[in-house]
Amino acid sequence: MPVAVITGASKGLGRALAEALAARGWDLVLDGRTPEVLERTAAVLEAYGTRVRALPGDVTDAGHRAGLVAAAWRLGGVDLLVSNASALGAEPLVRLEELPLDGLRRALEVNVVAALGLVQEALPLLRAAPAGAVLTISSDAAAEAYETWGGYGASKAALDQMAAVLGAEEPGLRVWAVDPGDMATDLYAAAVPDDDDPRPDPVSVVPALLRLLDERPAGGRYGAPALLEGGR
To answer: Which of 2, 122, 185, 204 is deepest in the core (most CB within 10 A)?
Structure first.
């Protein structure tokens, strides 16, 4: 069966995608920072009859990234690598004049440096896969100027560019960056805790991601709402 490595998989969009893949028979290697939450997620997914390896840790740790890829190798390889783990840079978000530089460094380390490190670790297995693919989770803050979203948005813009260059350098792979749109996640709640407006469940975004896997369009940046409507 195909194997997916998904970071930030214990809840939110990462968990929703993992469950959809488990339902399709994919084997999974999951990353998350909170062991007990990740273990509960793994138990739910194993009920689908798939093999699940849950490795708690921090994606900025090179040893942890190597462990994720090694676990996937033992399951048969890496067919899909999903960089979903994210850091905001400040919780709640603040204007750039107040953004702690250490927070910005953390956002860049998690959202960009660790994502590249994991790609580098997994590239041999991705190249060997029959249909290797890399999926990076972006944000509209990468392309639009929203007050207080500067640090996070800058990190996601860098991730988008990295994904674009990876796609040019690795023509045998599909490399997609996806802006999922608004979602009700813990990350958003931490970013803007005073915003009580209802937002879509992350599960509603998963069909857009599955469409990419099913149709395998050219690499590039996609918006989930457009994918759900049949466009790009």
So the answer is: 122
Q: Sort 194 into a burial class: Cβ within 10 Å, 0-12 / 13-18 / 19+.
A: exposed
For the stretch 172-189, pLDDT in tens is: 999 999 999 999 999 999
Ramachandran category for residue 110: left, alpha or beta (phi over 0 → left; psi -120 to 50 → alpha): alpha
Cis amide leading into 202 (omega within 30): no
CB-based contacts of 161, cutoff 8 Å, min separation 6: none
Count of C-beta atoms within a 10 Å radius of residue 95: 12
The residues that bridge with 135 in the sheet, in sequence order, are: 82, 176
Indicate the residue type of 110: V
The tens digit of pLDDT for each residue in 24-43 reads 999 999 999 999 999 999 99
The answer to whether the CB of 109 falls within 8 A of the CB of 85 is no
pLDDT confidence of residue 177: 98
Dihedral angle over CA of 219, 160, 146, 229, nearest 10? 10
The DSSP code sequence of 68-103 is HHHHHHHHT--SEEEE-----SSSS---GGG--HHH
